[in-house]
């Protein structure tokens, strides 16, 4: 397990009758972090770096980790509406947000419904839009360990990845992954990991400061999807990293932090 920040803590916040577990740490203006389809991997280097200037809020999606499942929730649209309510009821808007993979899709869907709830938005290899070329990895055709390995371009050369996943996968970790995968299937199975209407709905987010971050060798969500997002969100900007897969925050941590900090500013 990666080292955790000394001031890390956990809160449970009721949102529409669901007890949402939020991992929290750092100091400064809030930064909402929406994790990917495998759950939150912990208080990693990039989080600790950003937490020096920001209060990091990482809610565990309902049905993932320690947050209970909300039975009424059947789609990413439902989940994004749930988080919009969390943002409003906790007085966070307009908040900066970073979304990873499925979490990027959630953030984009929130922006499509109400861009004013965000000040700035960072989408890291987001799902949600069908790539113009190539396909989003069908990770339900492989077991969890294979999905995890596919997310990184060169696992053996990525120290933090090896720290997290280098040893044999413990039964408890395997079970957490499978629970997360089951909930992802429940929310995003049909159509698979995208919403055909999202590119059209995102037109309302034109002008919302948006940074797209992608690894050029992403084997989960092809880089071509970045063009679709750039077309959908007018004014968005793309940063790519070479020799990098689906997890630039781990594979290119220092470069990732530098780009995000420069974009978010004060």
Folded structure, characterized:
This protein is an alpha/beta fold. It has a single domain, classed as Rossmann fold, CATH 3.40.50.1820. The protein contains 10 helices and 8 strands. The protein has an 8-stranded mixed sheet with strand order 1-2-4-3-5-6-7-8, sandwiched between helices. Strand 3, helix 1 and strand 4 form a beta-alpha-beta unit. The longest helix is centred in the C-terminal third of the chain and has 18 residues. The N terminus is likely disordered.
What's the SSE blueprint?
Layout: E1 9-15, E2 18-26, E3 29-34, H1 45-50, E4 54-59, H2 76-89, E5 95-100, H3 102-113, E6 118-124, H4 144-150, H5 159-165, H6 171-188, H7 198-201, E7 210-215, H8 224-232, E8 237-241, H9 248-251, H10 253-264
Helix pairs in contact: 2-3
List the keywords.
single chain; 266 residues; Rossmann fold; eight-stranded mixed beta sheet; globular
Summed up:
Helix content is 35%, strand content 20%.
Tell me the fraction of residues in β-strands, as a range: 15-25%
Give the uncertain stretches in residue-range form.
1-5
Radius of gyration: 17 Å
Count every beta strand, where a strand is a DSSP E run of 2 or more residues: 8
């Amino acid at each position: 397990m990666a080292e955790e920040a000394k001031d890390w803590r956990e809160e449970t916040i009721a949102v529409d009758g669901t007890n949402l577990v939020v991992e929290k740490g750092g100091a400064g203006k809030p930064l909402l972090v929406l994790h990917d389809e495998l759950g939150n991997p912990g208080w990693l280097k990039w989080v600790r770096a950003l937490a020096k200037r920001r209060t990091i809020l990482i809610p565990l999606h309902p049905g993932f980790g320690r947050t209970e499942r909300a039975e009424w929730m059947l789609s990413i649209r439902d989940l994004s509406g749930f988080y919009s309510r969390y943002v409003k009821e906790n007085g966070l808007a307009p908040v900066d947000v970073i979304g990873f993979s499925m979490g990027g899709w959630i953030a984009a869907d929130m922006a499509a419904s109400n861009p004013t709830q965000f000040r700035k938005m960072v989408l890291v290899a987001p799902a949600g839009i069908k790539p113009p070329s190539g396909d989003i990895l069908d990770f339900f055709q492989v077991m969890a360990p294979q999905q995890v390995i596919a997310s990184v371009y060169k696992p053996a050369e990525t120290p933090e990845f090896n720290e997290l996943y280098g040893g044999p996968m413990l039964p408890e970790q395997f079970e957490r992954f499978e629970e997360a995968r089951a909930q992802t299937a429940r929310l995003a199975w049909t159509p698979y990991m995208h919403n055909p209407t999202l590119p059209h709905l995102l037109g309302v987010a034109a002008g919302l400061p948006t940074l797209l971050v992608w690894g050029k060798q992403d084997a989960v969500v092809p880089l071509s999807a970045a063009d679709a997002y750039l077309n959908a969100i007018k004014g968005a900007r793309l940063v790519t990293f070479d020799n990098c897969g689906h997890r630039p925050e781990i594979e290119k941590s220092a470069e990732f932090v530098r780009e995000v900090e420069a974009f978010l500013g004060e």
